[in-house]
Amino acid sequence: MDDIREVPLSAAATALLARGQREFPLTPAPYAALAVELGMDEDELLTLLRDLLDAGVIVRIGAVVAPHRTGWSTLAAMRVPAFALARVAAFVAEYDEVNHCYEREHEINLWFVATGPSERRVRSILHDIQYRTQLAVIALPLVEAFKLDLGFAA
Amino acid sequence: MDLDRTDAALLAALEDGLPLVARPYAALGAPLGVGEREVIARLEALVAGGVIRRFGLVVRHHELGFKANAMAVFAVPTAEIAAAGRILAELAFVRLCYRRRPQPPTWPYNLFCMIHGRDRATVTAQAREAAAAAGLEAVPQDLLFSRRRFKQRGARYGGRCHVA
Cβ of B149 and A2 within 8 Å? Predict the structure, then answer.
């Protein structure tokens, strides 16, 4: 489980996060290009990135893939008795196909996203979880997206 | 857009993040036998084709101070859901807005909004504002705050050969 705390950000870090979440340079030396844009040394920028990655502010530098453009994913949820929640959550989180596993304040208290190469594969994972925990898994697949993840303002 | 094996392999390699080296696209492609220029061209095409929604730093919202995260859910008549969804999407504090397949009677809600705010009171007020803006005051609804985060990691699609 993560130790969640707010990390204070320097002006340079704030500027980097504001610029860097979208349209990351697709050029041979992207960090050098970003450093120029932000008025920093390349080494300074790389150190800053490493620090933010270590602090957990940045998860990774990479792609947010549109849902269902490659493979399949679904939101799923379970009603887990309070005494078993941590254990069931740990079990569910073990699956490589599971990312984003959260507790929410509701009777249906365990929420996760399962992704995989096909719908069939993902549904078989959900069936597996259901079978092994003896708890119902509700699948809530996407029908239409009205707004997608476009990053956060720091 | 059709993805080939190489695109799938590149996306899989990206799941662990771009390396922090001077020429990261060269480094990304090397184990796959793909040259730097081709890596860049393929990523550009994936972005242009909408497969890659966003390319850059992926941040953890909690560490940025968005401590109150709630999922506002509504049970909206089918005929009205698209209009409601579009209104909700316009609100700055709504991060995500999706229509999903419900599972009545256990889960009757079909419209889902993620609201990330700095504190609980703000998010609660924002959810009320969202419902009012979209004309949803009278429909069945709920607001589920996130508690413990058990896992947060980018999606892994098992990138080998799942191309159409």
Answer: yes
| Interaxial angle between packed helices B36-48 and B5-14, expressed in degrees from 0 to 180 and rounded to the nearest 10 | 90
N- to C-terminal Cα separation, chain A: 24
B116 close to B122: Cβ distance less than 8 angstroms? no
Instruction: Check if A27 contacts B (Cβ < 8 Å).
Output: yes
CA dihedral B7, B8, B10, B13 (to 10 degrees): 180
Q: Residue B158 above 70 pLDDT?
A: no
Nearest C-alpha of chain B: how many angstroms from A131? 19
- Scanning A73-112 for CB atoms below 8 A from B yields 73, 75, 77, 89-90, 92-93, 96-106, 108, 111-112
Query: Count of H helices and E strands in chain A?
Result: 5, 6
Mean pLDDT of chain B: 88
CA distance A63 to B47: 9
Cα–Cα distance between B17 and B31 in angstroms, integer?
Answer: 14
Closest CA to B67 of B131, B143, B139, B147: B147
* CA A39 to each of CA A12, A22, A33, A45, B147: distance values in angstroms, whole numbers, following the listed order: 9, 18, 10, 10, 39
For the cut 60, the answer to whether the pLDDT of residue A5 exceeds it is: no
CA torsion sign for B7, B13, B15, B19 is negative
- CA B23 to chain centroid, in Å, comes to 28
Q: Of A63, A116, A148, which is closest to B158 when you measure between CB atoms?
A: A116
Residue A95, φ and ψ in degrees, nearest 5: -65, 130
pLDDT in tens, A65-121: 876 666 888 999 999 999 999 999 999 999 989 978 999 999 999 999 998 889 999
For residue B1, what pLDDT band results from cuts at 50, 70 and 90? confident
Provide the ipTM: 0.74
